[in-house]
């Protein structure tokens, strides 16, 4: 099964539409926090991520692999599906954990990821809010292209769909985990779930505007699909509570082209870190 034969992008589009409808019904986008500039960032970010940087990254990576390692094309095609699924999800998400963590560690990379955190509210649309620098050299995309090249295409499709599903659900303001914490007999199950995958509670805390309330954890909870990485590497913060304020405290709502196009474009407001 070839990656190009898949309907994966249509399936992801359906996910986005369904969650977006839920967000609209529950009142997101009606709060007045979404300015015209924020919508420009969100729409342009999604287009850049899905139409430009992702295809470019995959095409370039595949070209390099075909040119230098053509003898290894589909080398692991006979690997059992279940084993391939484990290999794909673990390697791809493990790479993203460290890339995401690096984005909160190194200033130059943070400025490329900062736009992901500048949104005033949680939304499934945040998945595309990253600058061109952050997206174009996204290591997990290179890993993904390599895994597909090596013959893990079918396993990748399923794993990628599950990853997107978990990621979208974790970014959505529709907190599916919140009512489950209140059911006593589910406590042991939820204890495991919130330590294995990213949930709204743990990921919303990562998008908090500050950590003064003990709920937010700006430098932690980096996991995208698997939260287990945070548990293993000491960056987990679990409270089962949701922050009252999202976004950035030092946000000057830089123009959309600055947030997505830095360092090609820089902010004129000298108070902004995007001006340097």
UniProtKB/TrEMBL annotation:
Chain ranges of the Fatty acid hydroxylase domain: 86-235
Keywords: Membrane, Transmembrane, Transmembrane helix
Membrane-spanning parts: 6-29, 41-69, 81-99, 132-152
Membrane found in the keyword field: yes
Subcellular location: Membrane
GO molecular function list: iron ion binding; oxidoreductase activity
Gene Ontology annotations of biological process type: lipid biosynthetic process
Domain of life: Bacteria
UniProt name for this protein: Fatty acid hydroxylase domain-containing protein
Classification of source organism: Bacteria, Pseudomonadati, Bacteroidota, Cytophagia, Cytophagales
